[in-house]
TrEMBL record:
This is DegT/DnrJ/EryC1/StrS family aminotransferase. GO terms for molecular function: transaminase activity. It comes from Microvirga terrae. The keyword Transferase applies. Belongs to the DegT/DnrJ/EryC1 family. Keywords: Aminotransferase, Pyridoxal phosphate, Transferase. PANTHER family: 3-OXO-GLUCOSE-6-PHOSPHATE:GLUTAMATE AMINOTRANSFERASE, TRANSAMINASE.
Length: 386
């Protein structure tokens, strides 16, 4: 029996191979492999697709988070919107995030010199709990990162209203859209609700490159300018460094060209993913709960919750269904960060700590066959915990 994989990028290449081959050849023959017309074309097209004023292509999604947090920290310090301290220690400034999203925001916090503050999540969607996030706000807060985990939509407008009502209208919201390309709901598209948004184009994303890539979206001209400076050494113009904290982070011409090819089918690919998630939800018996945001999803991952995870994992393996766990360790419990500053918000992490032992990821990708989807559904529907 052939195992159904979690994803299969060879199938993606089989579907787009002719276009990708020709695209690669065109780029290679052009002799322009960085900072060229294909990067410009993709960034303009993706900004238009999202409905934002600016999109900046970067080397990867973690660079995007790091650069954005650095920009927002410097802005907060200049404006005086965070409490000033005599020394800029690592625990002086805070970023509110969740602990269940794979460590990426926490990594960026530590690179910038901010303390991650962990808010709890909602049980059904596994997304940031708005009341928990608001409770964690303080005079040290530089930003709130709203991660659209698993391709599920956070109600960012509701988060903004709650923060404003609590007296934190000055604190920016960063949308982490690494798993949310093309996600629509709440009268908009993910990446347009907050002050600024970050994206990853890792190959398995809903819009994935054939290598690394990432970027930042915003309609704020000042934030756009600051991100562009820091992505290129802090240059104001060539070789003239006007801002500290810069680096070299670029989306190359080849990856930008590949992404332009795949962007045209993003909506249809997302629809296929959602149809797979719908089928799983219909097939899941009592006791198996599909993780889903009810205000919008693009089903980046199909995640199920169960009180019998190890048993279900072994059962699916015997039925030829691959599984994984996204993510098995909460950020606040990562052993490598044991001595790093961190804070758990006042509402605690009760839901996060229960959920981390209940989640299991099922196959979900656009090129799954109907027979594969039916096999997973049949296995799910027949599962009976011992």
């Amino acid at each position: 029996m052939t195992t159904i994989p979690l994803n299969d990028l060879q199938r993606m290449y089989a579907a787009y191979g002719d276009k990708l081959d020709q695209t690669a050849l065109d780029v290679l023959r052009s002799g322009w492999w960085l900072n060229g017309p294909r990067n410009k074309a993709f960034c303009e097209a993706f900004a238009g697709y999202l409905g934002v004023g600016h999109f900046i292509g970067l080397a990867n999604g973690t660079d995007a988070l790091e650069i954005v947090l650095r920009v927002l920290l410097e802005k907060a310090l200049r404006s005086g919107s965070v409490e000033q301290t005599a020394t800029r220690t690592a625990d002086a400034y805070e970023v509110i995030t969740v602990a269940n999203a794979g460590g990426y925001t926490s990594t960026a916090c530590y690179l910038v010199g901010c303390t991650p503050v962990y808010a709890d999540i909602e049980p059904e969607s596994q997304l940031l709990s708005i009341p928990s996030a608001v409770a964690a706000l303080s005079g040290k807060t530089v930003a709130v990162v709203a991660t659209h985990l698993y391709g599920g939509l956070i109600d960012v407008p509701a988060l903004r209203r709650a923060m404003n009502d609590a007296g934190y209208a000055h604190v920016p919201i960063v949308e982490d859209c690494a798993q949310a390309h093309g996600l629509k709901g709440a009268s908009g598209t993910a990446g347009t609700f907050g002050d600024i948004a970050t994206f990853s184009f890792y190959p398995t994303k809903n819009l994935g490159a054939l290598g690394d890539g990432g970027g930042v979206a915003t309609s704020d001209a000042d934030l756009n300018g600051s991100v562009r400076r820091l992505q290129q050494y802090g240059w104001g113009d060539k070789y003239n460094i006007v801002a500290a904290g810069g680096r070299n982070s670029r989306l190359d011409e080849l990856q930008a060209a590949f992404l332009s090819v795949l962007l045209s089918d993003l909506d249809s690919s997302n629809a296929r993913r959602v149809s797979v998630l719908d089928a799983y939800e219909k097939a899941a018996p009592v006791g198996l709960q599909i993780v889903r945001s009810r205000i919008g999803t693009v089903a980046h991952l199909a995640v199920i919750q169960t009180g019998h995870r190890e048993q279900l994992k072994e059962y699916l393996k015997t039925h030829g269904v691959a599984t994984d766990i996204h993510y098995p360790v909460l950020d606040c419990d990562q052993p490598g960060w044991g001595d790093r500053p961190k804070r758990i918000g006042p509402s605690g992490l009760d839901v996060s700590r229960v959920s981390v032992n209940r989640i299991l990821t099922l196959p979900c990708f656009p090129t799954m066959t109907e027979e594969e989807v039916a096999r997973v559904c049949n296995a799910l529907s027949a599962f009976t915990p011992r």
